Every structure is written in structure tokens, then in C-alpha cells.
Amino acid sequence: LVQKHNMMHRCQFASFNHERIAKVKSLAPDAITGALWADLPDDFLERSLRVQADEVHFRYDTCTHNNVKAAHNAGLNTMAW
Q1: φ, ψ for residue 42 (rounded to 5)?
Q2: Amino acid 5: pLDDT
Q3: Is the CB of residue 53 less than 8 Å from the CB of residue 34?
Q4: What percentage of the chain reaches a pLDDT higher than 90?
Q5: What is the DSSP track for 8-36?
Q6: 3-state SS, residue 80
Q7: N or C end of the chain: which has fewer CB within 10 A?
């Protein structure tokens, strides 16, 4: 639907279900995707990159300077919720 109405440039796709992010990327490689994390695991970067997320969406209390810096160093954008 988003592609049909030529709105990909105005949408982002975020999910706690990271396999859905991989699915979106397989259907629309140019889609902007975000890996949402409620409980941030130690390997959040590797898991976000594995599903080709463009962003890491941190829960507010895990959005630390070190986590944001690590994500940016890995080429990922960040967002807090």
C-alpha cells in the first residue's frame, strides 16, 4: 500500500519482531527500518544489523551515551521511546 501510493520516502517501519524488519527489507530494500528494543540485550547491534535495520530504537532508560555511540559507530541511526 505504501509503495502503491508512492509514500516510501515518508514512512518508517519499526517492530519489536525483528524478523518482520528482515521481511520488510526483503520486499522493499530502500525502506527505513528500526529495531525496537524493550529489554536491550548485549548483542543488540549484531541482531539489529543481522535483520538490516537502519535504526535502533532504545527504550528511554537504555538510551545511554555509550549505546547511542556504539549504534552510530556501527552505521545505525537511533531513536528513543
Answers
A1: -60, -30
A2: 80
A3: yes
A4: 86
A5: GGG-EEEES-HHHHHHHHHH-TT-EEEEE
A6: strand
A7: N
Prediction pTM value = 0.88
pLDDT digits (tens, 9 = 90+) for 17-55: 999 999 999 999 999 999 999 999 999 999 999 999 999
Label residue 10 by pLDDT band (50, 70, 90): confident
Q: Is-contact 47 17, C-beta < 8 A?
A: no
Q: What is the CA radius of gyration of the chain?
A: 13
Q: In sequence order, which residues have a C-beta less than 8 Å from that of residue 66 and are 6 or more positions away? A: none
Q: How would you class 33 by CB atoms within 10 Å of its CB: exposed for 0-12, middle for 13-18, buried for 19 or more?
A: buried
Sequence-separated (6 or more) residues with CB below 8 Å from residue 54: 32, 33, 34, 76, 77
* Bridge partner list, 37: 58
